[in-house]
Amino acid sequence: MSLPKLVPTLILGTKNLSSWSLRAWLALKKLGIAFEEVELPLDTPEYFQRIDRYSPTRRVPAFVDGDIRIWDSLAICEYANDISGGKGWPRDRAERAHARSISAEMHSGFQALRTCWPMQAATLDLNVALTEDAVADVARIDRIWQDCRNRHAARGPWLFGEFSIADAMYAPVVLRFNSYDARLSATAQQYVTAALADVDLRAWIEAAKN
């Protein structure tokens, strides 16, 4: 008698706060990969008692698929891309390079924005002033979104028309801009509105309220 196959598991942090967990979660959802969730409450004794089972960095998210352990958001997204047959990135090579570039920029940058406006997924009408560097971060993201949407709007509502990992990487920024009422260009605001209407992102926001 064969044993049942174990379902992959995503270990994530508190949904209202864990921006990096959202990135991996949304990519897995959108790429149609079945998984279970283990949510660890951030900055609690429970978190620090349990996280070592899953992540050598003691950070979330982490992804467990059988003997495979992955402990970085973008690495989880790339793994999801692999097992979905490449559906996580645009098919065109130039577009794929562009999508990977802006995703890597998000992964390593925009620290001033992260510091001033931490993600609070279920909260609206926050009023927190931005530093000069954070204002520059918002302006840069606005330009990225305008560029993508101006090129690919005819193909769908996401940055490259169809959903890609780039959208997962910027999803926490969408929630930040919504929570803190960021002033954006019309094109960038349309992208925020479209992303917030997505069924999976709405499900994350609802779960973050609990």
Strand content: 5-15%
Number of helices: 9
User: Helicity, in percent?
Assistant: 40-55%
Query: What strand line-up does the widest sheet have?
Result: 2-1-3-4
The CATH architecture of the largest domain would be Up-down Bundle
What is the CATH topology assignment of the largest domain? Glutathione S-transferase Yfyf (Class Pi), Chain A, domain 2
**Structural class determined from secondary elements:** alpha+beta
Q: Rg to the nearest angstrom?
A: 17 Å
Uncertain segments of ≥5 residues (pLDDT<50)?
A: none
Number of strands: 4
Query: First CA to last CA: what distance?
Result: 41 Å
Mean pLDDT: 96
Whole-number total of structural domains? 2
The helix/strand series, from N terminus to C terminus, equals EHEHEEHHHHHHH
Largest beta-sheet characterization: 4 strands, mixed
Coarse shape: globular
CATH class of the largest domain: Mainly Alpha
Quickly list its features.
2 domains, 4-stranded mixed sheet, 210 residues, globular, Glutaredoxin, alpha+beta
Describe this structure as you would to a colleague:
The chain has helices at residues 19-30, 45-50, 73-83, 93-108, 111-116, 132-152, 165-179, 186-196, 199-208, and strands at 9-13, 36-40, 62-65, 68-70. The protein has two domains: 9-86, Glutaredoxin, CATH 3.40.30.10; 93-207, Glutathione S-transferase Yfyf (Class Pi), Chain A, domain 2 (Up-down Bundle), CATH 1.20.1050.10. Helix content is 51%, strand content 8%. With 210 residues, it is α+β, with helices and mostly antiparallel strands. It starts with 8 loop residues before the first strand and ends with a helix. It has a four-stranded mixed sheet with strand order 2-1-3-4. The mean pLDDT is 96. The longest helix is centred in the last third of the chain and has 21 residues, at 132-152.
